[in-house]
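Hi everyone,

Forwarding the result from last night's run.
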Amino acid sequence: MARTRTWATIALAGALGLSLAGCSSHGGKRAEDARNAAAAQGHAAVDTPRWTFAMITHSGDGDTFWDIVQSGAKQAAVKDNIDFLYSHDANAQQQAQLVDAAVDQKVDGIIVTLAKPEAMKAAVERAEKAGIPVVTVNSGSAQSKAFGALTHIGQDETIAGEAVGQELDKRGRKKVLCVLHEQGNVGHEQRCAGVKKTFHGTVENLYVNGTDMPDVQSALEARLQSDKSVDAVVTLGAPYADTAVKAKADAGSGAEIDTFDLNAKVAAGLKDGTLGFAVDQQPYLQGYEAVDQLWLHKYNADVLGGGNPVLTGPQIVTKDQAAALEQYTKRGTR
C-alpha cells in the first residue's frame, strides 16, 4: 500500500512538475495559458490567482463519457484561470491513492467520484482535514455530504432509474434486462433498482465484465437467445449500447435497446431507430460546474445548492431530440 501511494504521489508530482516547469521558463506561463485557452477555444475571464484543481475519477481506460466530463472541466478551468489536473483509476484503492497524492501536492481543490464510497472515505476526509475543498461529481450523492464535501454535482441515480422504468412502461415493455458492467458501483445498482421501482413489468439484472466487450456481447447474446420474452435491454453506459445492438442482432432478438448516457454513436442510433431512448446526465455540465463550484468557493465562499446535490439529469432523449443534439455529441460536449 505504501509503495502504491508513493508511485501515485510521484505520478501526480510529475504532472504538477510539468505544469510548473512551463511557468518557470522565460515566457512559459504566458505560453501555457495561451495553449490552454486555444485548446478550449476561450480565454480566462477572471484575474484571480492561478489555483490548481485536481479531478480524480473511477473511470477505466477509453471511456468516452469521461472525455466529455473533462471537456467541460477544461473549459471552465480556462475561464476561471485554473491549472486543471486529471487522473483516474477503475480500482477504488488506487483511486484513493491518487486523491492522497493530490493532498500531498497541496492542490487548491479536489473533484472526486464516489462510485465505491467506503474505499474513498478516508482519502476524502484527509483532504478536508488538510483544508482542501472537495466537490464530488457523478457518483456518491448519498455519501457526499457525510464525507465533508462542499456539494455533489450529478444526477440522482435512483431518480434516473425511476425515469427509465416510467419510459419503458410508456413503450409497453414487459420484461427488461438491466446490464451492470461494473460490480460494486453503487450508482449502477441504484439505477437498476430505480427501474424496478417504477416499471410494472419484470426487471432482471445481468452482471458483465465491462472491461471486456467481447465478453459483454457474448453474455448478452446468450441471455437473449435463451429468453425470447425479454423485450428491452437497458445498458448503463453509452459504449455498451452499441455492443448490445450487436448482441441483439446475433441472437435474433426483437428487444429494444435503451441506454444511459449520450455520445455521437448513441445520437446516431436514436436517429436511425437502432436505439429506443437514452438517459442524458449531461457529463459536460458535471465537469464544468464542478470546477466552477471550486472556483466560486475559493473566490467568494459560495456553495451551490446549499450543500444539497445539484442535479444535472436525468433527461430522456428520444429520436425526436437526437437530431438537435447530434452536433453537440460530435464536438464532444454532449
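The first strand starts at residue 52 and ends at 57.

Cheers,
N.
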